[in-house]
Automatic annotation (TrEMBL):
Organism: Dorea formicigenerans
Domain annotation YARHG: ranges: 251-332
Region named Disordered: 93-115
Residues passing through the membrane, by range: 54-74
Keyword field contains Membrane: yes
SMART domains according to UniProt: YARHG (SM01324)
Identification of the protein by name: YARHG domain-containing protein
Amino acid sequence: MCPVCGTILEKEDTVCPVCGMEIEPSTIKNNQTEPVLPKEPLKKKSSSNNKKRMLCIIIGIICLSAVIIILFAFKDKLFAIKENEPKTKSIEKTVDIDKKESPKDTDSNITKTEEPDNVVDATVYQGYWNIKGNQDRELTIQSITNKTVTFSLWYYRLDAVGNISATLDGNKADFMSDVDGLTFKGTLTFENDTISVSITESERLYMPIETMKFEEKHATSWELANDYADTYNSTDNDSVNDSEYDYNSSDSYILSDSSSRELTIADISGLSHDQLELARNEIYARHGRKFTNPTLQNYFDSQAWYTGTIEPEDFTDDMLSDIEKSNIQFIKDHE
């Protein structure tokens, strides 16, 4: 029998008539009539199986390599997805917390808005407030409502601004005046039965940038001549001559004899810087000199003894006496 195709062979056949397989001559041993199968077909069958195994191994290696390559290529995306999962949860929690807390914030804001503003008590602050010193000052609170305050500010013998209206914001009021074409700005603060006046911008010569604190309230006004004289006479300030410092006196001088004799330290002691400046210009004013500074001009125009006839550019020091020149320099050295 042919070992390849199974065709029955004759004993003398050496080649299979069907498949052409070579057949070794049969050898009969121990009365066996079947031919001995050749070794070659067995070798060929074993070789075929080995090839199949090798092919399977190669295919497996290729598949495994492909899987490893794919995993390596997409590992970053896979890890990113895993890392993003807890973050998403935390964001969701944060959003939930915000949603829960936002009503509380809204409630707190509403509560703040509903808190009442500090209301300035008119019965406490309305009236005359004074500061005593080298230059006496008076703050007059004319009227106060929940929204506005009207006041005037007076500097003894130097300057005054009246009927200033300002809007109250709690216990503060920002004010602005342009009387005489001069800008004058600041803030009033009402607190603990005192009034602070902070001047933040000023074009008025005798009302400089400063902060004043008014703590003394009076029943009458110092700005009125008689009231001021009574108040001033009640002090122990010996350097002040009452008749000389009468605010409403139309023939008053700061230094009445500065054109007739040389001044001494005793004459100017107790005078403020602003008063010294007026005293120095007073010497020029006696000769009818006009002033480019509107505050100075307004002040001397209020004096009955003053008549401005000479323009500033036409006035020369030759019009002054030697005593006057000496006193002008003396006052200037001590301003």
